[in-house]
Structures are given as structure tokens and as C-alpha cells.
């Protein structure tokens, strides 16, 4: 059974030229397979001439000793290798070891029951650009097992509820002004905290920042990125910003998704580069808007990319931005994944992000 290498993964073929270290006959399915034919039976010898003359007096062989001496990491690698082989029999694909982009799901109440979800717009764009979207359930019991979802080659943090006081305090971030109960009811779906989601995303984002891992943060995600870098938030734009444009419509409003407002894009920024074809003879784009909070003061090392007419920041980036070297830390207050028909630059946001993820992965 030969072993061909594709990227970082190994795909097994049907000849017995290469030994499979440490796999015994229980590991190998010797039944006839429609795609692979008869597998070699039951395992290729390891470092032997085909007989058992090198067995010890107690009947054990070097193969058995290899099982005993194999470390936990070696056993894990063999198991992963075997599982990948078996999977490719059912799903015949070339395994290319894509960059792993982690994203935490969101809670939604449907028919009286909570479900976790993540918009397929995001998932499709990650996959179309060569990434593997790794979805993490936002449930409380994910936290103790969070390390099992690593390695992380990219982090996508998107929409959700307002960030909770508990997690902001835990990470030493500034807590914004909160609406009182009556006003908070207007944006009830946003103002109800989701501490479990906050816990997971703050832990992952801080890890990504420490490791230099690419981050694409949208809407609530951009607010999280800003406070982790020492910035502050506007508690409610309608209450705190004079002459504010409409940044959020009631979900029952027929124009909730179609609503747009202008932003002014600053030159020589990643945003200006992505939307270059749409910014000929203008510095203005019209973007969707789903937020009642926003960035007040910008965090350390972050530079502005766009502002709404009322002065609310609509995009920023880390000054070390360089996707070719795996450096990508971006915050957008709007949702490019929901504007694919508006501007070609919306897709380029994800292309650039995945380029950075690939280069970050390859730099390890």
C-alpha cells in the first residue's frame, strides 16, 4: 500500500511498496472495495524479510514492540492517517490540508428550542477560497475542550449580541454605557447577553492576536477586536451620537436587509484596495447596517479605513497588514458577505483573508 503525499496529508494507494508503521489487521479493512480493489492483507511487514525468523523467544515480533513503544502523538497520527484513508474511499477527493478557519456559532430560538447556527454565506466564502470552516458550538461545555479545535490558521468573528459585562471585565476591557430596561427592549435581540459565546470568542481572539493569526471580524466581531486592543465602545448610537444616521432597523421592517447608508473610504487602506473598481472618481460606498453599538475610541495599533456621515467608524485594520506574510487583522462594521451583488470588492475581502490564512499556515 503506497503512501502519496498531498500537502500535509497522506493518501494511501493500493500497492504494498511502503510500510504502514504500527497498523495491525484490526486497523485495516480487507474487504473488497469498489474504488480501491483488494487491500494488501493484512498489513505490510515492518523491517522484516517476510518470515517471522526475527521474532523473540516469547513469540513477540518487532511489529508488536513498535505498538508498545509508540508515543501518544504517534498513535494519534496513525489514527488520523487511517481515518483520512477510510474517508477518501467514501468521498474521493484529493486531500490538500487547507487552512483551518475557526468560527463560533450563534444561538437562535426556533419553534421554542435553541439551535446553533452560522450563516452559510460565511461558510461558502471560506470554502470557495480554499479554507476549511471549523464551526465551534457556542455551548458552555465547549470551553473545557476548546483546545481540541486547534490548530487555528484563521479566525472569523461575526454578528451576535452585545458583549457581556462579565467577559469585558474578565479581559480588562472598558464597559460601554448600557440602555435602561425600557430602551433596551427596542434592541432586545442584541442587548440580551450570550456569555458562553463571549467566553469562547474572546479566548480565541486573544490567542489569535498573541500568535499573529489572521482575523476577520465583522459587526460585533469588530467591536470585540477593538476592545481587546484597548479601545472603547459607543453603548447606543441613537442615544449617544448627534444627528446619527440609521444604523439598525427593527427586524420586522421590510427594509431590514436592503437598508444601506453611505460611508467615506480613506485612501491607501485595505478597504480602498478591495473596492478599487467601485471607487473610481468617488470615495463613497453604500453599506448595510445591523448595529446599534459601535467603536468610540480606536484600540492600539489599529488604523481607520472608513466613516459614516455621522462620524461612526465603519472599518479599521492593524497597521502591520500584509496578507502575503500571513498578517491580516481587519474590523468591518458592515457585512460584505450579504452584499455580494453590490460590489465585487465584497468577495475580495474573503479572498484576501484566506490568502493570509494560507500564508500563516505555511509559515509555521
Topology diagram in text:
Blueprint: E1 3-6, E2 9-12, H1 62-69, H2 72-90, E3 100-104, E4 106-110, E5 113-117, H3 120-128, E6 132-136, E7 154-157, H4 165-170, H5 181-184, H6 188-191, H7 195-211, E8 215-218, H8 220-228, E9 232-234, H9 237-240, E10 261-265, H10 270-274, E11 284-287, E12 294-297, E13 302-307, E14 313-318, E15 329-332, H11 345-362
Parallel strand pairs: 3-6, 3-7, 7-8, 8-15
Antiparallel strand pairs: 1-2, 4-5, 9-12, 10-11, 10-13, 13-14, 14-15
InterPro entries: Class_I_gatase-like, Peptidase_C26, PuuD-like
Region (Disordered): 28-72
Pfam families: Peptidase_C26 (PF07722)
Descriptive notes:
With 364 residues, this protein is an alpha/beta fold. The chain folds into two domains: 88 residues, no CATH class; 263 residues, Class I glutamine amidotransferase (GATase) domain (Rossmann fold), CATH 3.40.50.880. The protein is built from eleven helices and 15 strands. Strand 4 and strand 5 form a beta hairpin. The longest helix is centred in the N-terminal third of the chain and has 19 residues. One of its GO terms (molecular function) is hydrolase activity, acting on carbon-nitrogen (but not peptide) bonds, in linear amides. This is GAT1_2.1 protein.
Amino acid at each position: 500500500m503506497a503512501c502519496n503525499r498531498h500537502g500535509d496529508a497522506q493518501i494511501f494507494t493500493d500497492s504494498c511498496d511502503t510500510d504502514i508503521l504500527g497498523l495491525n489487521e484490526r486497523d485495516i479493512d480487507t474487504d473488497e472495495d469498489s474504488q480501491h480493489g483488494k487491500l494488501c492483507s493484512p498489513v505490510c511487514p515492518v523491517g522484516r524479510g517476510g518470515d517471522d525468523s526475527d521474532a523473540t523467544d516469547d513469540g513477540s515480533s518487532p511489529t508488536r514492540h513498535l505498538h508498545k513503544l509508540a508515543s501518544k502523538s504517534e498513535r494519534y497520527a496513525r489514527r488520523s492517517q487511517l481515518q483520512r484513508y477510510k474517508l477518501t474511499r467514501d468521498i474521493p477527493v484529493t486531500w490538500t490540508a487547507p487552512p483551518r478557519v475557526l468560527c463560533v456559532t450563534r444561538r437562535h430560538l426556533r419553534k421554542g428550542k435553541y439551535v446553533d447556527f452560522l450563516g452559510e454565506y460565511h461558510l461558502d466564502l471560506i470554502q470557495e477560497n480554499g479554507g476549511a470552516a471549523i464551526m465551534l458550538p457556542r455551548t458552555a461545555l465547549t470551553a473545557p475542550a476548546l483546545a481540541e479545535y486547534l490548530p487555528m490558521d484563521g479566525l472569523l468573528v461575526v454578528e451576535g449580541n452585545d458583549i457581556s459585562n462579565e467577559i469585558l471585565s474578565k479581559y480588562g476591557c472598558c464597559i460601554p454605557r448600557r440602555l435602561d430596561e425600557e430602551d433596551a427592549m427596542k434592541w432586545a435581540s442584541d442587548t440580551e447577553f450570550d456569555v458562553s459565546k463571549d467566553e469562547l470568542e474572546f479566548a480565541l481572539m486573544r490567542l489569535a492576536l498573541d500568535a499573529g493569526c489572521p482575523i476577520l471580524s465583522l459587526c460585533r466581531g469588530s467591536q470585540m477586536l477593538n476592545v481587546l486592543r484597548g479601545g472603547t465602545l459607543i453603548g447606543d448610537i441613537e442615544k449617544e451620537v448627534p444627528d446619527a444616521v440609521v444604523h439598525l432597523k427593527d427586524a420586522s421592517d421590510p427594509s431590514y436587509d436592503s437598508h444601506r447608508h453611505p460611508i467615506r473610504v480613506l485612501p491607501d487602506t485595505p478597504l480602498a484596495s478591495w473596492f478599487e473598481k467601485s471607487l473610481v472618481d468617488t470615495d463613497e460606498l453604500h453599506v448595510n447596517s445591523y448595529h446599534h453599538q459601535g467603536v468610540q475610541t480606536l484600540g492600539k495599533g489599529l488604523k481607520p479605513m472608513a466613516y459614516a456621515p455621522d462620524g461612526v467608524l465603519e472599518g479599521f485594520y492593524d497597521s502591520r497588514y500584509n496578507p502575503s506574510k500571513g498578517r491580516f487583522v481587519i474590523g468591518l462594521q458592515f457585512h460584505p458577505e450579504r452584499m455580494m451583488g453590490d460590489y465585487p470588492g465584497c468577495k475580495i475581502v474573503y479572498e484576501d483573508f484566506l490568502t493570509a490564512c494560507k500564508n500563516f499556515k505555511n509559515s509555521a
